[in-house]
Design goal:
Length: 184
């Protein structure tokens, strides 16, 4: 097991750090995932995948409001990734900001984003306004399935992509996860 203390220094490409972050996140090691994503964002603040994944981390610990800037940055950097739109809209719905969710949904639709996931999230938006709990739960399960598929696909893409050869010294100091999300 890799320890994160001030004496540990690893050289990783951004892709390698992202893979390690995704693996840690999937394994439920949220603090470790936060370390990787934070280090990526220090080197490349607008990294779309790291921003998106930090948003997912924030949502997973109930910090939905704090997730919004990460999702927004991911979208501003790469609006072609449907999952970025879905995550942002989902967070807005969870915050009962249905009008904002609908506006973001409409923007995504106008940019040509479509598919079953968008049809489902549109139903969630509609069900949020009509308080249709049964439809909402089905949409949430479906969205969670889509998020898991996204992470599996992302992991495969990164593993198969050629490294640009840039190495970054990433020194893992005291974790930011605890400070950011838990206030310790």
């Amino acid at each position: 097991m890799f320890k994160f203390d001030s004496s540990d220094v690893m050289e990783l490409t951004l892709d390698q750090a992202l893979i390690k972050g995704v693996e840690a996140q999937k394994a439920g090691k949220l603090q470790e995932a936060d370390h990787y994503y934070t280090k990526i964002l220090k080197v490349q603040p607008k990294h779309p995948d790291a921003n998106h994944n930090m948003g997912i981390l924030a949502v997973s610990v109930g910090k939905i409001q704090e997730a919004l800037p990460f999702f927004k940055t991911a979208l501003e950097t790469n609006s072609r990734i449907a999952q970025f739109w879905l995550s942002y809209i989902d967070a807005l719905i969870k915050l009962n900001r249905v009008t904002d969710a609908k506006a973001v949904f409409d923007e995504a639709k106008s940019r040509g984003v479509k598919g079953d996931s968008f049809n489902q999230i549109e139903k969630r938006i509609d069900s949020s306004t009509s308080k249709n709990a049964g439809s909402y739960k089905k949409s949430v399960r479906s969205l969670n399935k889509n998020i898991n598929t996204f992470y599996t696909s992302l992991h495969s893409q990164i593993l198969n992509s050629a490294s640009a050869g840039w190495l970054y010294n990433i020194q893992f100091d005291q974790g930011f996860f605890g400070k950011r999300w838990y206030g310790s």
